């Protein structure tokens, strides 16, 4: 059928369509039907703001003047700021957030794990990394599917890290596929460790992050972000915060491993927690004995 024939048929039709029915029409029928509606008729189709926005977005796309939308393939070379009204924003195709490690670790999230020295921060962080990369479980937390993990270690001796990983592998019932769990560790570096608190250091670490990387684990802040000034000053966190937000914009999640301060909270400025999705504090149980290891 030609567009003109469709227009004639639709004009003669006395039936009214709802928003979902309109969206279910093929492109040519939808275009003619929606273009023929006046403002009042379009308003009558507004069962919900979302449906109305979807109709407008589809019509503009078919008319050749598609509204701006942000998808996972957004062109990141553009430096201009963007603002949209509520209808356009609701029609944007944004990837939904997913569970990386259920129930607390989500995609595009910024999180923190902290504790006193010796409680088991790295033990837990390595367990999380292995579970996410293999699609396994750890401490009752479940990874629905394997995802790429980059583990940035800033202080552990290489042999000690190998030993811990070997124990995790021996105890696990799943194994990450090649390339799914990658490690940066000091013993393998010829030129020292980049500083995440500097733009130069961030640029160096960014070269390790590829499209398959969905979770970045920073173990730990004190060793990998050294030149950020006084830990208790909010300004010292600003450069790292900007980097973390950029990672989130690119669809990555970041888990910061950090030390506890004298009062038992995470050490340094409380401003760190302002943008975090989840903050986990590890503590020994009241009856803990030093010979019990990580408990």
Explain what the structure shows.
The protein has 295 residues and is an alpha/beta fold. The chain contains 11 helices and 10 strands. The strands form 3 sheets. A 6-stranded parallel sheet has the order 7-6-8-9-3-10, with helices on both faces. Mean pLDDT is 81; it is low at 10-14 and 66-77.
Which key terms come to mind for this protein?
6-stranded parallel beta sheet, 295 residues, 11 helices, two-stranded antiparallel sheet, alpha/beta
Give the tally of β-strands: 10
Structural class: alpha/beta
Distance from first to last alpha carbon: 72 Å
Helix content: 25-40%
Overall spatial form: elongated
Question: How many strands, what sense, and barrel or not for the largest sheet?
Answer: 6 strands, parallel
Write the layout of secondary structure elements.
Blueprint: H1 3-12, H2 19-24, H3 27-35, H4 39-44, H5 49-62, H6 86-91, E1 99-101, E2 105-106, E3 110-115, H7 121-134, E4 137-138, E5 141-142, E6 148-153, H8 158-171, E7 181-184, H9 199-206, E8 213-219, H10 221-224, H11 238-249, E9 253-259, E10 278-281
């Amino acid at each position: 059928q030609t567009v003109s024939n469709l227009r004639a048929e639709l004009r003669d039709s006395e039936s009214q369509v709802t928003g979902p029915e309109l969206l279910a029409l093929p492109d040519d029928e939808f275009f003619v039907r929606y273009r023929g509606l006046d403002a009042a008729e379009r308003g009558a189709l507004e069962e919900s703001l979302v449906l109305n926005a979807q109709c407008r977005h589809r019509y503009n796309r078919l008319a050749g003047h598609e509204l701006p939308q942000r998808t996972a393939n957004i062109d990141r070379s553009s430096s201009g700021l963007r603002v949209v009204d509520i209808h356009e924003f609701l029609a944007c195709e944004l990837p939904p957030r997913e569970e990386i490690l259920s129930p607390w670790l989500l995609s595009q999230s910024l999180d923190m794990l902290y504790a006193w020295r010796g409680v088991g921060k790295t033990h837990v962080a390595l367990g999380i990394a292995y579970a996410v990369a293999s699609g396994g479980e750890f401490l009752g937390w479940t990874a629905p599917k394997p995802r790429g993990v980059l583990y940035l270690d800033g202080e552990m001796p290489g042999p000690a890290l190998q030993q811990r990983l070997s124990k995790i592998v021996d105890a696990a019932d799943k194994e990450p596929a090649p390339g799914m769990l990658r490690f940066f560790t000091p013993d393998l570096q010829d030129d020292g460790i980049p500083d995440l608190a500097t733009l130069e250091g961030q640029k160096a670490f960014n070269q390790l992050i590829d499209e398959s990387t969905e979770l970045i684990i920073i173990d730990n802040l004190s060793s990998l972000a050294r030149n950020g000034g006084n830990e208790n000053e909010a300004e010292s966190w600003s450069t790292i915060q900007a980097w973390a937000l950029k990672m989130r914009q690119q669809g990555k999640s970041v888990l910061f491993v950090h030390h506890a301060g004298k009062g038992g909270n995470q050490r340094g400025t409380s401003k760190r927690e302002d943008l975090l999705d989840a903050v986990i504090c590890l503590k020994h149980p009241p009856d803990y004995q030093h010979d019990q290891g990580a408990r």
